[in-house]
Specification:
mainly alpha
Amino acid sequence: MGRPKKVIRKRERVFNKISNAIDYLQDSWMNVFKIVFTVGLVLFALYLALVWMPTVERVIFEVRYL
């Protein structure tokens, strides 16, 4: 008879967390997408306001009609 398999609790916890995360993404991927998209837009707006705008000398808006 062989020895019983060693139970590794840490590995089980990690696999359970990964499994729960995958289940959450499968169940509510649209909410995750909306949150990530909104956070991305806010970060981009902050970048424009705090980093890009002070370095620009002038912004010219032109409307050209053909």
